Amino acid sequence: MDIYLCIAAAGSALLLAAFLYQTVAGWSHRRRYATAGIMIELWSRQRLFVRQEGSGTATVVFEAGIGASSLNWRHVQKAVAAFSGAISYDRAGLGWSGPRRTARTPAIVAAELHELLRRAGVTPPLVLVGHSFGGLVMRRYALLYPDDVAAMVLVDPMRCEDWPPFNPGMQANLKLGVRLCTVAIPIARFGLARLGLSSLICGSGRVAQKLSSIAGENCRYVLRRIKDEVQKLPPEARPELVALWSRSAFYAEMRAYLEAIPAMVTEMRSAPPIQGIPVLVLTPGSAAPLSGEALHRIGDHASQIIAHKSRHWIQFDEPELVIKTIRDMVNAASAEKIPAGL
């Protein structure tokens, strides 16, 4: 009996130490990274982390992908701030922002972004830039507040027809993603996600390999995908990404987004085209180009550029193309005309 008590006590002590390690590390990283921007509180009591840089006639507003944060725009925003105002933020529940208190639909997120910009003192004209799910948010923003928007850049925007309920074949992938997030929540709470991600992203990778060998093939596949994409980030941004992805709240929020995808795409599939606003879609060379009909569903002034060297994260694969496209749209907004060739 004494042996079992010793084992139980040792196990409890180990869990407590792991929990304290995660808590202290999380507190330390928040103090280190969240001071690079400001917090703005909305009427819903959600507190959102914001980064503002630069100045100009127009302001470029960045919206990240479904589980991403303003960190994914950091390098592009810095370049854009050299010729324009530029603002990025973390949606509620993600990045360094506070907990989410509302549903994750494009209409709700767009309304929160509108309030955020007003409270931050950002005035039109706006050039909206959205990646993946952020593309749906920016489309909805332009429909809700068309007078504020001068132009848009959609970086491989999420395609409604690729997801349930319009593509039932993706349902199994969604369920797998939800399961992986559910498993990751307690793993992150006790610091194992931090150890694995630190090894994978900032270290030799040996610890991550050992942990993934225990978790199974699905986990190994996800880690391989993560490593491939994260290597495109500037080295100085990787420790902050580890800090963000080590939080159990990140996986809870990611699960909520995945569960909400059918409602998201249903909302935007029936959305009308954007009228009178130039929209430029950057499509990666790894994906099929959007058809003329698909572009028309986005807007009556929508056109497309193929990023031949890119996969989904065009802002990492071809940042110069993204920056040039934004610059062209800012110049067009300042001149109040559509760039030649669109």
Which tags fit this structure?
342 residues; alpha/beta; Rossmann fold; 2 domains; eight-stranded mixed β-sheet; 13 helices; 8 strands; globular; disordered C terminus
Tell me roughly what share of residues is in helical segments: 40-55%
CATH-defined superfamily of the largest domain: Alpha/Beta hydrolase fold, catalytic domain
Q: Let me know the average pLDDT.
A: 85
Encode the helix/strand succession as letters.
HEEEHEHEHEHHHHHHEHEHH
Number of domains: 2
Q: Gyration radius, to the nearest Å?
A: 21 Å
CATH class of the largest domain: Alpha Beta
Total of helices: 13
- Give the low-pLDDT segments: 11-21, 337-342
Largest sheet report: 8 strands, mixed
Assign an overall shape: globular
Characterize the structure shown.
The chain is an alpha/beta fold. It has two domains: 36-166 and 264-334, Rossmann fold; 168-258, no CATH class. It is built from 13 helices and eight strands. It has helices at residues 2-33, 74-80, 106-119, 133-144, 171-189, 192-202, 206-215, 217-230, 238-245, 248-269, 292-298, 314-317, 319-335, and strands at 38-41, 47-53, 59-63, 85-89, 126-131, 149-155, 279-284, 302-307. The chain has an eight-stranded mixed sheet, with helices on both faces. Strand 7 (279-284), helix 11 and strand 8 form a beta-alpha-beta unit. Helix 2 packs across helix 13. Mean pLDDT is 85; it is low at 11-21 and 337-342.
Topology:
Blueprint lengths: L1 H32 L4 E4 L5 E7 L5 E5 L10 H7 L4 E5 L16 H14 L6 E6 L1 H12 L4 E7 L15 H19 L2 H11 L3 H10 L1 H14 L7 H8 L2 H22 L9 E6 L7 H7 L3 E6 L6 H4 L1 H17 L7
Helix pairs in contact: 2-13, 3-4, 5-10, 6-7, 6-9, 7-8
